[in-house]
Amino acid sequence: MSIQIQQVSVKIPLASPKGLDLDAFIPIFHEWIREHRIDNELLIDVADYRHVPNGPGVMLIANEAHYAMDSEGGKAGLLFCKRRDPLGDPEAAFRHALGQAATAARLIEKEASLEGSLTFDTSRIQMRVLSRLTAPNTPATRSALEPIWRQLLAAVGFSGAELISPADSRQPFGLAVHSCAAAPDLAALLTAL
Amino acid sequence: MSDTNNSQTWAQQLGDSIPTPMADEIDAFETNITLRKAGKLDPKIFAEARLRRGAYGQRYDNGRRHDGSKTQELLYPSGDLVKGPETVWDAPGMMRIKSPMGIASNVQLETLADLAEEYSDSILHVTTRQEIQLHFVHIDSTPDIMRRLAAVGITTREACGNSVRNVTACQFAGGCSTAAFDVTPYAKATTYYLLGHKDIQDFGRKFKIAFSGCKPNPCGMAMFHDIGCVAVTKEIDGEVKRGFEFFVGGGLGAVPFQAQLLDEFVPEHELLPLCQAVCRVFSRLGERKNRARARLKFLVKKLGIEEFRKVVAEERETIPEDERWTAYLDDVGVITETPLREGRALEQSAIDGLDDLVRERFEYWRKHNIWQQPQTNYVTATVRLPLGDFTSRQVRMLTDITRKFTGDTVRFTAEQNLVVRHVSEADLPDFYQELADAGLASPGASTIADIVACPGTDTCKLGISASRGLASELEKKFAKRLYQDPEVENLHIKASGCFNSCSQHHVADLGFLGVSRIVDGRRIAHFQFVLGGQWANNGGAYGLAIGAYPSKRIPEVIDRTLAFWKAEREEGEDLKGFVARMGRATIKKQLEDLRKIPSYEEQPDFYTDWGDAREYTIGDLGTGECAGEVVSIVDFGLQDAERRLFEAQLDLEGGKPGQASVAAYKSMLTAAKALIMVFNIDIQEDADRVVADFRKHFHETKRFHDPFAGAKFANYLLKRYENPPSIEDDGLVAREAIDEALLFVEAAQGCYQRMQGDI
E-assigned strands of B220-326? Predict the structure, then answer.
């Protein structure tokens, strides 16, 4: 039986977190809601977690997902998290999460009020499967899902990617690109998807 | 793929790890979900069912959201399906998770972290009732959440709804030198005796119970609960016996009541039957139709404490004996929470060995975040959680720390923090460093920087102003200042987004509750400033509102108030004493200019609330000149009502409760008259006429009805009209009259705003 998963998240780190001003994201995300900037999402609200150290910063809440300028582990980046979706094919779930994260990151790069101060580093992209029922953080899950993720990365322009997985089994299963020979920029990534 | 579980559900995977009764309850709830989706269960019934399972509504779940310029429809995919009146099925909601006495084991914490990560936004929010809330949760996810919690011994049953809510207790219980004894086993026994008990299934409103180990400290807050138990001992026949001072009828909410003493010494074996008797009386005699008067405090007031005591005693005699009343007492002396490591003293040399910057931070953290336990060389450390929030990742780092240093010793607190108990003093520098690495070493626990805030406009459907946004701003402000200003350190700030006082603002030194005002056709977020409350003595005194100030001016309001206090106070005079001596009128005068609003053109950010980029008002009133004139007359009248209300407060403060009561009533009549002017400009200042017109134009038409509280506030006026205040009224009556008048006048403001098409 082939594996089915749900609740995939993708984080695209900032190339340089020095330019990150979380305050700016309150009006930006409100504008995204007002102007329905993200396709396929019912955008609902902005959650302000700037007070949480190394937390999710400012979050754009959608009905079935959320987007955050997240600093978990001290690594700032755009995080996309699917909170709710039916069980499905991993390749499709990865592709969707990658696409949504890249779309939001690209919108940020092009955000006029930020004046180009933020760019993203796709070469350190991280993927997690939050659902512990479908994908517990075990070697078996890695065996099942890593080839699918690798294949997708290769298809969208990554080459020579070295992937690492969180050692702490309490964390969700995930694969982060530790190093790679080549990675597409956001525009190329979106085109390839 | 042998150990992935693609073919399984959580129910199957968890199997026997969920106790059968809990599994059955959750299955039944899941069936209710199915029935509701099929249209075979009434939305109102389903709403109460989900509330009793802890699944609560959240802001924007009515399918509408104002984006700063207009209201947008949120087209949830579920269409017309609802999970309660005006509550769209697919809209994200809140899950409230009980943790009796705030206790959480490491495994439980890690489960909460998993759930926050998978179904919520990776944030665990600690409430003022020592529970955890997860936000943005879908109703379809809730049965699995409940199952995973049940598998680690947590229930969400009766976390919301008309039931006995999470039983709270002081977080230092069992590790406190001022406590008569450890109340934990008694609170625990009460929790599980009443949980799901048949006698608590038919309440008209919610019911809250708190335990405190002593009288002077605030941790247990017994004085503002439906039942408040304070541990005491008494020598009987030469033997020291344990028991409780037993208080009833306390509560905050819109109209705060101090609890009254039912019995000065309830022996431990009588605790559970007496709680049960009170619950049965509440169930039998409590108000049902009028939710605004349905809490126990109103029943105690209606009957009087003497009659209530008599009725409870009679009820007690009718209850069949239950072996659970005393079975737990055999285990009361058994220590269930043992330190992991040997208690050793902290040597100065260990502190001296720290890096200079680390030492300075450690010492400051230790000053406020450490509670000395009576057990030699052990302390309880408070982990301050800004606005009560921490992440799933932080939870896992915390459990690594507690597994290393203390074991299962975490408790959530009413100040939205958590404590780690039984830390060996010698371990403190390492313990601190590991907390700091996890971002969990914020100093200043229980100081002015440790601000309590309800969810407010962030996620609560009832929020009027951004209490969390304000608190966040104030935290930043006072965190910087703490090092320089020790005099203000020990004050408490609490901010509520509306009158429901979920932040417990009545017992803060500086309390705030969200309101709004219209100025020049634009709505502006405000906070009523509540002064004179007391956090000590289990929440021993309630403050009174001094006036409404623009949200963006609140930092200045605080600065000005504190500066005035510091300049004018007598030696050793605390803020509460200062307020009482100076009088609110004097303090209000100091703040008068802060009520002014800059024009929109001068300062547009004044017209947004903290942490929100949207304009607070719609600003599209489109009123003509004629209406504009009426507006100004109405505004004037409402302002006059506020003035009369303030005078009532001064009368009460000045020891003239009868005059205060009469003035409070007049302020309601004035506000009502102001509104009537929209329809009848010639309305006279005659109570009969005003009330008759108010009924006709506002009550019968439901125009005055609050979107959430219904006729509650209108009834305050109608009730006073039927039973007019008297110059003979005592302080309790006057206090209630003022609180009701405050809400009525606020409701009049809200009504007027709605009439202008600005909802």
Answer: 227-236, 239-248, 260-267
Q: What's the pLDDT score for residue B332?
A: 85
CB A118 within 8 A of CB A19: yes
- The verdict on a CB contact (< 8 Å) between B72 and A34 is yes
A166 touches chain B (CB under 8 A): no
Domain locations along chain B: 4-150, 175-321, 348-437, 456-621, 622-759
pLDDT band at B312 (very low <50, low <70, confident <90, very high): very high
> Using DSSP, how many helices (H) and how many strands (E) does chain A show?
4, 8
- Which chain B residue shows the shortest CA-CA distance from A131? B118
Inform me whether the C-beta atom of residue A169 falls under 8 Å from chain B C-beta atoms.
Answer: no
Distances (CA, A) of B422 to B47, B129, B618: 42, 23, 53
Residue B423 carries which side chain, given as an amino acid letter?
Answer: V
Beta strands per DSSP E along B507-551:
510-519, 522-531, 544-550
Question: Does pLDDT of B161 surpass 70?
Answer: yes
| Continuous segment of H or E residues that includes residue A44 | strand A43-49
CB of A140 within 8 Å of a chain B CB? The answer is: yes
- What are the chain A neighbours of B121 within 8 Å (beta carbons)? 47, 56, 59, 61, 66, 68, 81, 83
Whether A33 sits inside 8 A of B67 (CB atoms) is: yes
CATH 3.20.20.70 assigned to B175-321: no
Residue type, B464: I
B348-437 has which CATH code? 3.90.480.20
Task: Scan residues 18-57 of A and list those with Cβ closer than 8 Å to B.
Answer: 26-27, 30-31, 33-34, 42, 44-56
CATH number for the segment(s) B622-759: 1.20.120.330
Q: Is A144 on the interface with B (CB under 8 A)?
A: yes
Model confidence at B335, pLDDT cuts 50, 70, 90, reads low
Instruction: Write the residue in B1, B122, B611 that is nearest to A3 by C-beta.
Output: B1
CATH number among 3.30.413.10, 3.40.30.10, 3.40.50.20, 3.30.1440.10, domain B456-621: 3.30.413.10
Strands in B132-137's sheet, in edge-to-edge order, are B55-56, B93-97, B132-137, B123-126, B389-391
Question: Taking CA A139 as the corner, what is the angle to CA A136 and CA A145, rounded to the nearest 5 degrees?
Answer: 75
Interface of B with A in 46-105 (CB under 8 A): 59-60, 65, 67-69, 72, 74-77, 90-92
B393 closest CB neighbour out of A49, A72, A134? A72
Within an 8 Å CB–CB cutoff, is residue B656 touching chain A? no
The residue type of B568 is E
**B425 touching chain A per CB within 8 A:** no
Domains B348-437 and B622-759 share a fold: no
Q: In whole angstroms, what is the distance from residue B610 CA to residue B462 CA?
A: 17
Closest CA relative to residue A65, chosen from A49, A85, A86: A85
- On whether ipTM exceeds 0.95, the answer is yes
Q: Each residue of A109-159: pLDDT tens digit? A: 999 999 999 999 999 999 999 999 999 999 999 999 999 999 999 999 999
Instruction: Nearest chain B residue to A33 by CA: give it.
Output: B67
- Nearest-CA neighbor of B232 among B213, B257, B209? B213
Quick one: tokens of B675? 């509104």
B123/A contact by beta carbon, under 8 A: yes
